[in-house]
What we know:
The protein is of the alpha+beta class.
Amino acid sequence: MFDQARCWIDGSIMPAAEAKISVFDHGFLYGDGVFEGVRFYNGKAFRLPLHLKRLQRSAQALQLAIPLSADELAQAVAELIAASPLTDGYLRILVTRGVGALGINPATCQQPSVIIIADQLQMVSDAQRSQGVRAIIASTRRLTPDRLDSRIKSLNYLNAILARMEANYAGVEEAILLNDRGCVAEGTADNLFIVSDGVLLTPPATEGALAGITRQTVLELAVANGIPAREAILTSYDLYNADECFLTGTGAKLIPVREIDGRKMAECPGTYYQQLTQAFSTLIQQETGG
């Protein structure tokens, strides 16, 4: 299962099967840490500076000092990709609070730990990406910024996991989370876009959505391709009446949605989805030299 996976842990590269962390690491014990997911293509990380900037901002919000500079992290990523048997794959960059005493007090942790994993990640099958996935609106709600700001990409994903469990029980592939006001936040591990009356719409981060890098890239590509696009507060009504819907994320890339709570989208895969997917693929090749 992990034959091709490689890890970089505090300066050492090893097969994933040999990787070890302390059971007293607060990232393991309490989810006290931050992470980034990064795709690499043709042996080169895609938009790595943007991911490292977001990693730093997440860590700053948690008063977590990353022990490596952005340049040092980029070098570690390059070394791990070079050591990986994969030319295209997925990276998980984690910064944990480090080893400390039992109990949640972060003051007992003296040194944060940096872990990078290189492996493959396929969130949906080729058939699902071609035909579109089915989604439900979960009863689990996304936490709002006054509780835990969604822009902090922390190691605690229980909120999303509970929503994904609802999707599993319902026999569908994805769940969409609302915030406590009933407005759309995002999917379990991806941002959400809809098309309504010719306009591409996505919820703002203030509604509980992650400030996704793929999300921002799609917005930029929309502008470059003459597609009207903007952030908008959305409710389930907007989802049910959308002309098309798709999900975006580093892990997800772009995934079309064909059905939400049994309501079928007018188009799937939609016209804008197909146009933006092609533009996204072209951008990847341009930026990674493939």
